[in-house]
Amino acid sequence: RKEVEQDPGPFNVPEGATVAFNCTYSNSASQSFFWYRQDCRKEPKLLMSVYSSGNEDGRFTAQLNRASQYISLLIRDSKLSDSATYLCAVNGGYSGGGADGLTFGKGTHLIIQP
Amino acid sequence: EAGVAQSPRYKIIEKRQSVAFWCNPISGHATLYWYQQILGQGPKLLIQFQNNGVVDDSQLPKDRFSAERLKGVDSTLKIQPAKLEDSAVYLCASGGGMNTEAFFGQGTRLTVV
Questions:
Q1: CB-defined contacts A:B, below 8 A
Q2: What is the Cα Rg of chain B in Å?
Q3: Average pLDDT of A35-42?
Q4: What pLDDT score was predicted for residue B1?
Q5: Which residues of A touch B95 (CB under 8 A)?
Q6: pLDDT band for position A5 (50/70/90)?
Q7: Do B99 and A91 touch (CB under 8 A)?
Q8: Testing the interface with A: which of B36, B45, B55, B59 to mutate, by most A Cβ within 10 A?
Q9: Could you tell me the sign of the dihedral formed by the alpha carbons of A50, A91, B36, B71, in that order?
């Protein structure tokens, strides 16, 4: 069974700091990678997709390292509103003879302190 | 564009009772997922549909859980009989294809007492 691992945290960082999360995945055949944000008692919301070449959206940068089988998320100049749980998700690939669905890690809890 | 619709939002039942959840995905989305999220954990995939066919149900407890998507659009997830450990948020998500991003509904918060 495909596994996706994240450091659960919590990460306590001061406002304005840079914070980075990693997420490892076990299935080398995985094809798609995403970061989601989940606020307390809300549904997960797509933050960004992760491409082989890396991608950036404002203060957020996502990277994929296929050789080491991990994805990363970097948040620069963190804001109080960035406090949330960040979930990585991995899709595609096949294991045990069947297709694998979109699998999530357990999430990393981020707390931005004023 | 309308998002993923789920109902009910909340449900409280006694153990050994049955319960059903409904999901209507984003229009045109072929892929539909059901997830179980227990407090403090990430979403756990229960079942994935591609149109009206099952792609992955390897983590669905088939002795008590069932799901269907008969016409390839909306879907229902049923638990019968419920156990205390089934208390969780049940999230439905949909996507345009098997390897694309998924968009979530607001979820159904189930409490089994």
A1: 62
A2: 13
A3: 96
A4: 65
A5: 102
A6: very high
A7: yes
A8: B45
A9: positive
